[in-house]
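Predict the 3D structure for this chain.
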Amino acid sequence: MLSRSYLDIKVIKEFFTQRIKRGLVRRLNNLKIAFVAREVARKEPQPNGAPVIFFKASTGIDDLSWNSGFHLLTSWAFRLQGIPVIYFACNSGMSKCVLGTNRDNPHKEMPCRSCVHQSKTLYTGANPHWFTFERDKDIGSALQNLNIEQLSKFEYVVASSEGATLAPHASAGEQSHLKQEIASSQSALLATTLPLGALCLPGLRWVLRIHHLNDDESTRYLLREYILSAWNVAQKFSKLLDETNPRAVIVFNGQFFPEATARYIAQKRGIRVITHEVG
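Done. Predicted structure below.
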């Protein structure tokens, strides 16, 4: 009969063997991806017309997932046809993201370094539009003492006008007042409510593997950080839309909060949004 110590050593050895193999496979794949990406950049014709924005932040942190592959191949096909492509890419642009969350340790540091490295490999030869994270202290304060139900229903008024930025408001009274101001402003282009809480729920439920969320501090913490991160995505993505006026937006899945927020904002502006998922 094998001793327990022998079995422990065997398990540890297998763990490190698989880890080394995975690292080698990842590096070889990335070399191949970078090579093809450079070929696409070299052969793509002069782009013409309004761009198409590609955004995926909830698949393939440090490996080429099926959905990352679809995202990349589709964008390459567009570029080789002369269609302008803009990659909206995360550069530590969220305090917490869906794939980077550790449900057993919600405060664990995010794997941003490996994720950004992977994105830079995918977008070799391109000029992605990177976005970073800026914590909104006012929003953070508004969220701090809310329970799960209140966080889940948290909404912000989004005011987009020429020369204006998104404006957050927590209370229903303030939201109603701002909508009246926007409606009376001749320069206003869009006034809508951004349901940040609702946009963040699918991703949080998926991470925690539970539909009915517990009202405990760990869950509230994650939902607060997701809302703050979604708000950051909303601001950065809205600015990109203002600057580029794309013909379409293509996002992975469209259910987890980074892509869901981008999808929601684009659709409110009347921009065509296409979602994809494989596997």
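The radius of gyration is 21 Å.
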